[in-house]
Design a protein that fits this description.
It holds the Pfam family BRCT. By secondary structure, the protein is mainly alpha-helical. It contains 12 helices and 4 strands; from the N terminus they run αααααααααβαββαβα. Strands 2-1-3-4 form a 4-stranded parallel β-sheet, with helices on both faces. The termini are far apart.
Amino acid sequence: MNTSEYENLTYRQHTTRSEADKAINSLKGILEGIRMDGEVNASEIAELQSWCAMHQNLINRNPFKELMLLISEAVREEEARPELIEDLIWLCRKYEHGSIFYDAATADLQVLQGICHGILSDGIVADKEVEALDRWLEDHAHLNSYYPYDEISSLVTSVLSDGKVDEEERKRLLAYFHEFAQLTDTALTQKIKSETAEVKINGICTSNPDIRFDGSTFCFTGLFQRASRKEIEQEVVKLGGRVSGCVTKSTNYLIVGDSGNPCWAFACYGRKVEKAIAMRKAGAKTVLVHEYDFWDVVEENRQ
């Protein structure tokens, strides 16, 4: 074997393992999402079958054969499905604990994406699912500042702030989850698109942001209620931060002004927010911060 062949084989081994890790984490998330409402229906089982079809190339790798056999059993044995879901989750966890390529944050984010997929797989966002997702988010607070954890956390917190989930909020959740889940059921996909056609979600600010001024770069967008843009920029400089007029890869924080719209967390604030969200999806660490949270941190730093 020459050097080129060896390097290609080594690359493929690492790529395949990374692919396997991602597939397992995705499945784990789908399973977690499915069990959140305590029921397992035919649409959800169909999504598990689709997962199997998508990862047939991994069937000879441990533990994919076992996972796919369990899913096949879940297809056949309707009454045993809840127990089989638990078995599948257990097997996923057993795999991740033995993975030398396992990265906790990356894996948890993949699980979160899978949870969105699992919740969405029957086209219904149930109250129990939202409440269970809220608990999961609380248990994984170490993901704060990672996309899309902070956006989802802020959205769920807002939805549950009055202790109930109304129909408009349900549509908003449905629309947002659909951004992360590519369902194989085309009819269901079209139904969701139709139901959420009027819902616009272009970016959500981080809840309880950890802001560090010294050496950080700040950018501003929107209309500010408490002070003028110039006064806010002066506060940042006083606390050791830098001010930029545009969002770049080096932007640490984009401060979003409160326009007076009570739905600020889901509104579009123009090109800077759009650019920041796009950059976050590409891996940038820019944190979107609402004006109110920004001033809370400023006051703390003044003391």
